[in-house]
Amino acid sequence: MKKKDFGFKTIFILPIVIYTLVLIVLPIIYVLFLSFCTSDSYGGINYQFTIDNYINIFDITYIKMFVKSALIALVTTFICLLISYPFALILRRKSESVKNLATKLIMVPFLTNSLIRTYGWIILLRKNGVINNVLTGAGLIEFPLNLMYNKVGIIIGMVYTLLPFMLLPVCSAVFELDKNVIEAAKDLGAKPLQIFKNIILPQTISGAFNGSLMVFIPSIGYFFIADILGGGKTMIIGNLIKNQFLTARNWPFGSAISIFLIIITFALVKVYKRLGGKIEDLGGL
Amino acid sequence: MKKIVLLITILLILSGCSAKSYDGEVNVLNWTSYIPQEVIRDFENEYNIKVNYGTYSSNEELLAKISSSSSGTYDLIFPSDYMIELMIERDMIEPLDKTKLNNIDNINSLFLKQKFDKTNKYSLPFLAATTTIVVNRKNIKDPITSYNDLLKEEYKNNIIILDDQRIVIGMALQANGYSMNETDKDKLDNAKKWLLKLNKNIKAFDSDSPKTFLITNEVDLGVIWNAEAIIAKEENESIEIIYPKDGFALSLDNYAIVKKAKNKDNAYKFIDYLLRDDVSKKITEEYPYINTNKNCQNVSTDELKYILDNATYVENIGSNISTYDKIWAEIK
Question: Do A244 and B86 touch (CB under 8 A)?
């Protein structure tokens, strides 16, 4: 009996183990290995140990770019938080069926490729696009606004693409709030802002941080949004890595930046755990 | 159980429906928007050879695809000038057997014996492109003859430029009177300063479809590939195409057969088909790059001579590319 049970489990677990091993663990080990190699002038790889790739990351040019990229990601995360909390708090009071429907609707955009959705934004945001035409037509503005081909465009695209990753964890945290506690606070004369600051926020902070991680990390890497809606004018870390593998043909340096990003991610997860978050809740990460 | 058997039977029948039997296949990897679908379909019907067509959007992407795939995955590729040189050095492409190409005489000799493959041992020209300045004359009346004319303050946010570091930094070098393949640190530094000045005027960097910016009136100026410029002009009459006096880039894309290709004969058949006058004409009618077929010339001989005398090829600069990459990171 025991033996049969073991075989049964193995059959079901093995594919996942192989999948993780072959498609995730091995590539990361290879990238780690590459990051300590040197590149020859034609983009090939010399198997010669060096830590120069890591030293090069701390060049002032790249540091400036990292800071810019992190700022864009921070603004994106903050805007996602600002949208998610009111949404979740309003939805909390609705019936179960409305909640279910709303959560499903959040997932609907995932059915279409994000690249196509990003191209869709061009039609809305460009100089002669829908938004500018409506605003100028209504006489609200005299000249078209620069809504894309700048950082504004990048942030609009990032917020749009990554918002579901913030909405879902924030909603599930807010829905779990005990409504008696909030009512008790009200009865004791707490103002809405006080209730939010002292009751809602502390109890949902791990959900918010979970969402923030899922928004912040992709938004330093989604180079296609920076390319399409930012007009290729702003480089984020994702673009830099992509360039190392293509135009600059410096795979070892690209690998070093990737490993650097993974380290930052681990550091952020550590902070998350300190804040009382559970690693299982991160799911997709 | 019955249901499953039924399902499998249906799947088998359906999969049988779509399979057409071909005599062979050829694996082609080409630039995006370069050969119309119709041309490929006609080849498949005429020769009964299946074309497995993949695309790339930069030479580096092509290089990455070839070097990371197992040998024999691809047969026919279309690398540009400097990439041919690099691929010959790295022993990635086969010498071409010209006896298998009946239509080889259609090639305009002006495009043969270029410096990246002096005897055309490994490559034959397919299509050529140059960078040009484009101006929407409806909104901009000032004379424009040089890249330096693009620096005017009133052109703020009004220029579309290719998202290609070699082309853009090369242009900045030429604007300063240097060669576009310069590797000297000081000269590159001057080019960087020039680009930082131009940066305020750049609306966007785009290599995929820069013409759209001009057609939709998003911008009035651009430095883009000539074919894109010609399409933009077809849509918008007031667009003027200018060859800048500082010089401009020339890119020549070539047929090449990958080492250890499995379907060499079919690849030769496909090249020979593309060299045919009627086919070549169809391609440049749809994508107006410079045709290298002497019977389908779409640029006058004088203009062609002017282009070949004044244009510069992007050259392989080896590890100096990292300096370019850093400048690129700084201006973006």
Answer: no
Q: Does B91 touch chain A (CB under 8 A)?
A: no
Examine residue B261 and state whether it is found in any structural domain, yes or no: yes
In a domain, B6, yes or no: no
Range of the domain at B321: 129-249+311-331
Contact across the interface for A250 and B202, Cβ inside 8 Å: no
Domains of chain A as residue ranges with CATH: 60-282 (1.10.3720.10)
CA distance A102 to chain B (A): 36
Q: Is A130 on the interface with B (CB under 8 A)?
A: no
- Cβ atoms of residues B289 and B226 within 8 Å: yes
Give yes or no: residues B319 and B197 share one domain. yes
The pLDDT tens digits for B94-128 are 999 999 999 999 999 999 999 999 999 999 999 99
Nearest by CB: A126 against B218, B318, B322: B218
Q: Is A248 within 8 Å of chain B by CB?
A: yes
The β-bridge relationship of strands B311-313 and B248-257 is: parallel
**Radius of gyration of chain A from its Cα atoms, rounded to whole angstroms:** 23
DSSP string, A133-170: HHHHHTTS-SS----SSSHHHHHHHHHHHHHHHHHHHH
Which of A38, A152, A246, A250 should one mutate to test binding to chain B, selecting the residue with the greatest count of B CBs within 10 A? Answer: A246
**Do B176 and B35 belong together in one domain?**
no
Q: Does B64 touch chain A (CB under 8 A)?
A: yes
Same domain flag for B183 and B324: yes
**Same-domain check for residues B226 and B256:** no
Angle at A54 between CA B90 and CA A31, to 5 degrees: 55
Q: What CATH number is associated with residue B163?
A: 3.40.190.10
Indicate if B154 and B197 belong to the same structural domain. yes
Is B5 among the domain residues? no
The two three-digit tokens of residue A221, written as one number? 């890497």
Report if residue B305 sits inside a domain: no
pLDDT at A284: 45
Mean pLDDT of A27-38: 94
- The question of ipTM being above 0.90 is answered as no
- B64/A126 Cβ within 8 A: no
The tens digit of pLDDT for each residue in B165-204 reads 999 999 999 999 999 999 999 999 999 999 999 999 999 9
Residues B195 and B319 in one domain: yes
Instruction: Provide the number of structural domains found in chain B.
Output: 2
CB contact under 8 A, A250 and B322: yes
Chain A residues with beta carbon closer than 8 angstroms to that of B64: 245-246
Å from A115 to nearest chain B CA? 14
- Residue B254: its pLDDT value, please? 96
**Is the Cβ of A65 closer than 8 Å to some Cβ of chain B?**
yes
d(CA B220, CA B236) in angstroms, rounded, equals 11
CA B116 to mean position of chain CA atoms: 16
Whether B106 and B218 map to the same domain: the answer is no
Same domain, B225 and B281: no
Compute how many other C-beta atoms are within 10 angstroms of the C-beta atom of residue B199: 13
Pairing of strands B24-31, B49-56: parallel
Query: pTM for this one?
Result: 0.84
A41 interaction partners in chain B (CB closer than 8 Å): 318-319
CB pairs under 8 A between A and B: 79
